[in-house]
Amino acid sequence: MKSMLFAVLAALFTIPAAFAQTDPAQTDLTSADPVQAVLQTHRALIEESSRRTIGPAIDGIANSGLPQMQAVLEAWQAKDMWQRSSDGWFFAATKSGADSYELTNFADGSVVGTYPKGEVAQIKPNSGIRAMIATALVQFQLSDPDTMRRSDALDSISRNPEAALLAPLRASIPTESDPDLLARKIRIERLMTMAYDPEADARVTAIQAMAGDLGVDFRATLNPILATRIQVLGAGESPDGNIARDVTPGGDELTRAQAYALLVGAGKAQVEVTEDARDAALEAHITDGLVAGTRVAQLDSESARDAAYKTLADQGLVPALVTANDVDTTLQSYRFVAIYAEPSRQVTDAAAAALAKSEIRVHVGQAVDLGLDALSLASIYFLAAIGLAITFGVMGVINMAHGEFIMMGAYTGYVVQQIIPNHTASIIVAVPLAFAVTFAAGVALERLVIRWLYHRPLETLLATFGVSVALQQLAKNIFGTQARPLTSPAWLDGAWVINDVVAISYIRIAIFILALLFLALFLFIMKRTRLGLETRAVTQNPRMAAGMGINPDRVNMLTFGLGSGIAGIAGVAIGLFAKVTSEMGGDYIVQSFMTVVVGGVGNIWGTLAGAAMIGGFQKGVEWLNPSNTLAAQTYMIIFIIIFIQFRPRGIIALKGRAAGD
User: What distance lies between CA 2 and its chain's CA centroid?
Assistant: First the structure.
């Protein structure tokens, strides 16, 4: 009877198996449509569409080795994958009517037919699943014929590197034809090798190949390798990892309180009773005005409270009081070590050496970057002060309206840009126009005010200060109080990035070049032209110059106009990166005077040296105290006051008869 029952059961189980072995649809599915075979293998997980369980299905599709799987994953990610209800097969679908969809086979791209909405179901992955699909797509996109897709794949790896992507990334490197993408692939492959390769030798090789690299991504990859945790070791205990160093409690890395808290957390020390906890315990044990036999009124000092608490502790009513000496004694009984998160000593040693080399280069780069910033600021100060070097340094006129000439030049550039929308053309027009406007304003100021006040410095200062206030108010009445934009040409946008540490904006480079051009122009005018010769003659001895047929009034007028015109051009340049307001001249008048005075009155090379000193000093102070830029101005003024005590004639003082004027 039993044998007959077993035979019946065996027959029942054998019949489906036989049908399965000879099912022509299944055979056709496996041989003729391998894409569908893979999808049907993971059908249940795809239908469930749960982020917790979908991982094996995505991995199985991505690692199937079939090139069509890229289209499958892309359609799935875009919610364009549909399932036919009759047999559960998956297709790409496009809407062909109000309630029908055209299904396309993933294997060969052929259209299998049009089906009503009720016979197909859309596969709708949530955002989490789409993110997982995007990661799986990377291995296909790395070798995609489209350059942009390969670039996007590298961006995706950089944002979210995973160990599983290392192998397909390596496989794509030999076939990469674009040199820029090849360099990116090699760099990312090295970074991922450092982080994910199971072989220590391969990781060390990659680290040593990039040692000293300034990239933020390189240092960010090394930091997790060199991350540490503090471990407490008692007598006879051995560390359970790769020791980085011994740590002494009480330093910046591990404070005394943190070290004791580690001991308490490990159950190796008693919880430290705080003053608040002590006082609360004393209050809880007040009986008839007494605490441990001591009247409450007598607990008016820390020592008395500690003694009362100790009495309660001796009676077993409260935990024992842990004193500072107890904490120190306990800490001395244990060893504190920093343990690397990375277990391989070989890897951590290589990473530490590489990071140290990078840090040295970073410091050098920061110094170079600071020097470039100082040079840029010095060129701005020189550009603002070169006009003053003529009116004050050469002519001896204290022109407090010099900053307003800078402001007038900036507003001239703004007006030109309203008329000429092309920024390049507008700047080309604005530079000579700003010179003409401020030259005319300077000539007018000299003819109407300055010519009557030569050799009367106090009256000149007061008069030009009044003119500066008037010009500021006039600018407010015309342009308002809001800052006006002066946009630089597109070819001056961005910065020259030397590496991840050193960079300088193109507009600052342009201002530096402009400052050099004006230095050369000024030297040419003063040394090689008739105006320069006459200016020097009038400056040194007006009477003798007049006796030689030179008109001192005309020379003074043209010289003052020249200095004012150069200030106008400086205003256009400064306005390209600074705010253009009626008060902008005040931001540069003080620095301009300091530049001329520190450099040496009457000497253009001194003005250049003064600008370099002031710009470098200001940037140095800002680097030491970056959170307070106002401190740089204060310290700079103090420095200049001290400096002129030792060199009252400036860095490069005039010699000969001119020095005594």
Answer: 81
Average confidence (pLDDT) over 388-414: 84
Q: What is the pLDDT of residues 153-187, one digit of tens each?
A: 898 888 888 888 888 899 889 989 899 999 999 99
CA 235 remoteness from chain centre? 47
Task: Output the pTM of the full model.
Answer: 0.65
Average pLDDT over residues 414-439: 91
Q: What is the DSSP string of 542-594?
A: HHHHHHTT--HHHHHHHHHHHHHHHHHHHHHHHHTTS-B-TTTTHHHHHHHHH
pLDDT at residue number 626: 66
Sign of CA pseudo-dihedral 155, 160, 164, 166: positive
50-to-46, 91, 123, 388 alpha-carbon distances in Å = 8, 20, 12, 74
Cα separations in angstroms, 444 against 264, 411, 590: 82, 19, 23
Cα separations in angstroms, 419 against 409, 565, 646 = 16, 22, 52
Residue 516 tokens read as 């050099």
How far are the Cα atoms of 53, 352, 359, 646 from residue 79, in angstroms, in the given order? 18, 47, 47, 78
Q: How many CB atoms lie within 10 A of CB 652?
A: 19
**Spatial contact of 427 and 413, defined as CB atoms under 8 Å apart:** yes
Q: Cβ–Cβ contacts within 10 Å for residue 661, how many? A: 11
Q: 3-class DSSP state for residue 232?
A: strand
Q: What pLDDT, on the 0 to 100 scale, is given for residue 5?
A: 40
| Cα–Cα distance for residue pair 35/538, rounded to 1 Å | 94
pLDDT for res 331: 87
Which pLDDT score, from 0 to 100, does residue 430 have?
92
CA distances from 198 to 209, 242, 343, 354, 365 (A): 18, 17, 12, 20, 34
- Measured from the Cβ of residue 393, the count of other Cβ atoms closer than 10 Å reads 27
- Chain-wide mean pLDDT for the chain? 83
Contacts of 254 (CB under 8 A, 6+ apart): 230, 247, 248, 336
Q: 656 or 452: which carries more pLDDT confidence?
A: 452
Q: Is the pLDDT of residue 377 over 70?
A: yes
CA Rg value for the chain: 40
The structure tokens listed for 447 are: 């003819």
What is d(CA 231, CA 344) in angstroms, rounded to the nearest whole number? 17
Read off the pLDDT band of 487 (50, 70, 90): confident
